[in-house]
Amino acid sequence: MAAAGLVLVRLLVLAAVVSTLTALNDPTCECPDGFKLCAGHCLRRLDRALTYDEARIMCAGLGAHLAVPRTEAENQCADSAAAGQLVWLGVTEVPGDEGHYVGADACGDVPVGQFWASGQPENYGPRGEDRVVMVPHDSGTVHAVGWHDNPAEQEWHPLCQRSLFYRPDCLN
Ligand SMILES: [Ca+2]
């Protein structure tokens, strides 16, 4: 009787292992509808120009946040996903701490430098600028390519970003 019980336990364990492996083989290495995978993140540029807060809320409604490129590859992905439009990034200045930027991805500080357009951020105007917009290489505008600080009331297209649930086999 004890032996039969042991066999049953082993069968149950085996069934659990098989079911786990089956789940891992599900073809779910895809971003949600409308999002495109690039450098390990899902990106989606929305079709309407909105204020920063409106853009942030629209992305949140999609289970995403405004994009925060942190590597050259991620910045190139954002530039491509922008598809010629100026896009809000999830990069904001800490209130009362001029020049100190943090990311909406909850990964902390975003340094000034690398991806910024020449002369930016410059906190232009009497009210200053504490949000960040990306000018892609193909914007067709006079604005220099790269990141610019901008006031939150400006209207630009939201660039939303979600993480792909971590699975090593999904990263290629
Ligand atoms: Ca500026």
Automatic annotation (TrEMBL):
Residue span(s) of domain C-type lectin: 38-161
Coiled-coil segments on the chain, per record: none
Claim: Signal is one of the keywords in the record: yes
Gene3D superfamilies, A to Z: Mannose-Binding Protein A, subunit A (3.10.100.10)
Alphabetical UniProt keywords: Signal
Name of the protein this chain belongs to: Lectin BRA-3
N-terminal signal peptide: 1-23
Lipid metabolism keyword on record: no
InterPro entries (UniProt xref): C-type_lectin-like (IPR001304), C-type_lectin-like/link_sf (IPR016186), C-type_lectin/snaclec_domain (IPR050111), CTDL_fold (IPR016187)
Organism from which the protein derives: Amphibalanus amphitrite (Striped barnacle)
